[in-house]
UniProtKB/TrEMBL annotation:
Annotated region (Disordered), positions in chain: 440-553
Gene transcribed to yield this protein: tig
PANTHER family per UniProt: TRIGGER FACTOR CHAPERONE AND PEPTIDYL-PROLYL CIS/TRANS ISOMERASE (PTHR30560), TRIGGER FACTOR-LIKE PROTEIN TIG, CHLOROPLASTIC (PTHR30560:SF3)
Record's catalysed reaction(s): [protein]-peptidylproline (omega=180) = [protein]-peptidylproline (omega=0)
UniProt-recorded name of the protein: Trigger factor
EC number per UniProt: 5.2.1.8
Function: Involved in protein export. Acts as a chaperone by maintaining the newly synthesized protein in an open conformation. Functions as a peptidyl-prolyl cis-trans isomerase.
């Protein structure tokens, strides 16, 4: 095999590999000898078919496979001989003028990882904002539990007021008097003032009495899930079946026992522990962002454009998804477009930080153990049902990219924890509001990162033809008995016909980064980690353009 470098500019590399016809033919001969004992042909005993007849029968297919195998080995040898560290999957293409029996010229294009300078981690200084759990906060949560567990007393001799529970039968009709699907129900409980139903529904029930029949005039929200009802006027004919008032909410031992606990003290302890966990999560998020800011400020080096593009595509896809849930999707998309360059800079920063964290992790022996990996796989498999769980586990075990996606967030967190231990940390007590404000004041996406394998990155193995990624089983959402289109059940749960109030999505143009900076679904996140099997996988098998066509027979 001959190798000629055709491009060496920045992080971009290109080569032309020439694989001789003699080498390809030698591979065909070796394959003919291997399969000949298994070939059956009329007139010959099993295993006695002459090699020349085997070649005649299967020559085109064997030649195509031999060419593909030679290309794969040639790319692997190129990466090894040149000590290349591909940033992403190399592009491999067989020249269009190739014909069977000739030398094969193959073009290989790739971007390599930069030489990451040794990160300075000895002078890191961080402030840890801690939020104590006040008794008042625990009491507030206890009161919420008590309110959720409140009992209702019949009050059939009074007119309904805000805060009462009114049970009704109802029939929903469009403006032309036609009942619509999902708009009819019986014995639906409506807590007046809860805001769970479409505007106007609860308000018009204030003042009704037991046995009263009434027509409610409402208008479905513009963003309602059922398009044929969105923004349209409608009526609901209701019959009042019951009126109840809330009994006094008590915080006592019975409340704890109704929740399946032994005592009120145990309930208070669980609530306090949960709040502490939430505060610790916020504290970690703030510290992590400050840590990444320090790393970013101290390092500036070229990063592979292909990795930046992949990261940007991930960010943009998320933003587009969020924009579709805005009240004005078109305006949200326009705002995104105006900030496209800013998001591309954010993507570049994320890639650079990921490379830095990976360099730190590898230099300091940070790794994800097999036991931890098994736990990650088991946890991820819980989203599937029945046989799909085992299929998912097998898929992750066989597909290095999938394993890398699972490993990446944990690996990054372990590197961050290592840096926390190295840093000089000072504690300062703060309120939750101050901590949340400090987090919100920072650009969430800008602090996101992805860890990347520096030294063992090779092209990933291609899945066998026909191998399918297990599909995620559709999760069933529980619907309480009697739930239907007119209850607080979200539209997507009730056939999109309920007058349920649709929650508004967060603003797409101002996303807030999650605590874990690595986005598991990111194409760049799949390149993660501390010398994983993803990095050691065999090269992706390139398909020869012309030869592959002849192999179909």
């Amino acid at each position: 095999m001959q190798t000629v470098e055709t491009l060496n500019e920045g992080l971009k590399r290109a080569y032309t590999l020439t694989i001789t016809a003699k080498d390809i033919d030698a591979k065909v001969d070796a394959e003919v000898k291997r399969i000949a004992p298994q070939v059956k042909m009329p007139g010959f005993r099993p295993g006695k078919v002459p090699a020349n007849l085997v070649r005649k029968m299967h020559g085109e297919s064997l030649a195509a496979d031999a060419l593909n195998s030679a290309i794969q080995q040639g790319v692997q040898q190129l990466i090894a001989d040149k000590a290349l560290r591909p940033a992403m999957q190399p592009s491999v293409a067989l020249n269009d003028d190739y014909a069977p029996g000739q030398d094969a010229a193959v073009t290989v294009e790739l971007e390599v990882l930069p030489a990451v300078p040794a990160p300075a981690i000895d002078s890191l200084k961080l402030e840890r904002l801690t939020v104590p759990v006040a008794d008042e906060l625990v009491d507030e949560q206890l009161q919420k539990f008590a309110d959720q567990s409140k009992k209702w007393d019949d009050a059939d001799d009074k007119a309904a007021e805000t805060g009462d529970l009114v049970t009704v039968d109802f029939v929903g009709k469009t403006a032309d008097g036609v009942a619509f699907d999902g708009g009819t129900g019986t014995d639906m409980g409506v807590e007046l003032g809860s805001g769970r139903l479409i505007p106007g529904f609860e308000e018009q029930l204030v003042g009704v009495k037991l046995g009263e029949e009434k027509v409610l005039n409402v208008t479905f929200p513009e963003d309602y899930g059922a398009k044929e009802l969105a923004g349209q006027p409608a009526t609901f004919e209701i019959t009042v079946k019951k009126i109840q008032v809330a009994a006094e909410s008590k915080i006592d031992e019975d409340l704890a026992k109704n929740l399946g606990l032994e005592s009120l003290e145990q309930l208070r302890g669980l609530i306090k522990g949960q709040i502490e966990q939430e505060h610790n999560g916020l504290t970690r998020t703030h510290m992590k962002r400050k840590l990444l800011d320090q790393l970013a400020e101290g390092h500036d080096f070229e990063v592979p454009p292909s990795m930046v593009e992949a990261e940007f595509a991930q960010i943009w896809q998320q933003l587009e998804h969020e924009a579709t849930h805005e009240e004005d999707p078109a305006a949200a998309l326009a705002e995104m477009e105006a900030e496209r360059d800013d998001y591309r800079k954010i993507a570049e920063r994320r890639v650079r930080l990921g490379l830095l964290l990976s360099e730190i992790g590898q230099a300091n022996g940070v790794e994800v153990s097999q036991q931890e990996m098994n736990r990650l796989i088991a946890q991820a498999a819980q989203q599937y049902r029945g046989e799909d769980q085992q299929r998912f586990i097998q898929y992750v075990q066989q597909e290095p990219m999938a394993a890398a996606q699972l490993r990446a967030p944990l690996y990054e967190d372990k590197v961050v924890d290592f840096l926390f231990d190295k840093a000089e940390v000072t504690d300062r007590e703060a309120t939750r509001e101050e901590l949340e404000a400090a987090i919100e004041s920072e650009d969430g996406f800008a602090t996101g990162t992805h860890t990347h394998d520096h030294d063992n990155h090779k092209p990933k193995a291609k899945k066998a033809a026909g191998e399918a990624k297990p599909k995620k089983a559709a999760a069933k959402k529980p619907v309480a008995e009697g739930d239907n289109a007119a209850t607080e059940t979200p539209a997507e749960d009730a056939g999109a016909e309920a007058p349920a109030k649709k929650p508004r999505a967060k603003k797409a143009a101002a996303p807030v980064e999650a605590e874990t900076a690595v986005t598991e679904s990111s194409p760049v996140a799949a390149e993660a980690a501390e010398g994983t099997e993803a990095a050691d996988a065999p090269a992706k098998k390139p398909r020869a353009k012309k030869a592959a066509a002849s192999s179909e027979g």
